[in-house]
């Protein structure tokens, strides 16, 4: 089972996003039979088998083993990954593209950058997996609480200057055998957590 699978094919995305099938995918974090799943999700076994067949045809679930009891052989299936992400490439030309965004300070541009990360890195991960190679990546995530808008602006200016200095130091467009990397730095407000309701 993969830790994460990026779904690039539109037909596979359609199958995975159907509510009953996405519920079955979540239930199949551990191997289970159609009969076991039918009991868990409250559906007829035949209906569960129908959905499992669609998931298996798209490579979203796979055979984990078989067990025999009585005169029957029961197939155990498991999800192909612990979690899934649908790549914007599944939307084709309608997918978000930061090259089409005009306002580079807008939330829409940030979302389009995120979509490009999923599309590009998802494709690179698949190719690395196919060739049994490890993909060199770097991810940094942290939180910062600014005292004021002025501090936020000063931080942005200093961060931009620091990145420009590092890029100038390490970027060599003529390096033989060098490989270009995409560097993104994004910041957005954290979603507010709902305040706990007082019990009366």
Question: Would you kindly provide a written description of the structure presented here, covering whatever features stand out?
Answer:
The strands form two sheets. This protein has a two-stranded parallel sheet. A two-stranded antiparallel sheet has the order 2-3. The chain has two domains: 2-84, Winged helix-like DNA-binding domain superfamily/Winged helix DNA-binding domain (Arc Repressor Mutant, subunit A, Orthogonal Bundle), CATH 1.10.10.10; 87-170, no CATH class. The model has no long low-confidence stretch (mean pLDDT 91). Helix 2 crosses helix 4 (45-57). The chain starts with a strand and ends in a 30-residue tail after the last helix. By secondary structure, the protein is of the alpha+beta class. A hairpin with a 2-residue loop joins strand 2 and strand 3. The chain is extended, with a radius of gyration of 23 Å. The chain is built from six helices and four strands. Helix content is 42%, strand content 14%.
Chart the SSEs and their pairings.
Blueprint: E1 2-7, H1 10-17, H2 19-27, H3 34-41, H4 45-57, E2 61-69, E3 72-79, E4 81-86, H5 107-130, H6 149-170
Parallel strand pairs: 1-4
Antiparallel strand pairs: 2-3
Unreliable stretches:
none
Q: Provide the β-strand percentage band.
A: 5-15%
Amino- and carboxy-terminal Cα gap:
47 Å
| Cα-based radius of gyration, to the nearest Å | 23 Å
């Amino acid at each position: 089972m993969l830790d994460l699978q990026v779904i690039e094919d539109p037909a596979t995305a359609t199958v995975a996003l159907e509510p009953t099938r996405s519920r079955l995918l979540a239930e199949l974090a551990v191997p289970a039979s159609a009969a076991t799943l039918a009991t868990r999700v409250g559906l007829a076994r035949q209906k569960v088998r129908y959905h499992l067949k669609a998931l298996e045809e798209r490579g979203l679930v796979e055979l984990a083993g078989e067990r025999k009891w009585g005169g029957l052989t029961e197939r155990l299936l498991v999800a192909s990954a612990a979690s899934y992400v649908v790549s914007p490439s599944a939307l084709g030309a309608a997918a978000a593209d930061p090259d089409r965004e005009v306002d580079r300070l807008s939330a829409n541009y940030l979302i389009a950058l995120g979509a490009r990360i999923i599309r590009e890195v998802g494709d690179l991960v698949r190719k690395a997996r196919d060739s049994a190679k490890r993909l060199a990546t770097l991810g940094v995530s942290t939180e910062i609480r600014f005292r004021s808008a002025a501090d936020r602006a000063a931080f942005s200016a200093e961060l931009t200057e620091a990145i420009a200095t590092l890029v100038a130091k390490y970027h060599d467009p003529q390096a033989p055998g060098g490989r270009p990397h995409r560097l993104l730095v994004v910041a957005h407000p954290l979603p507010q957590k709902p305040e706990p309701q007082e019990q009366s």
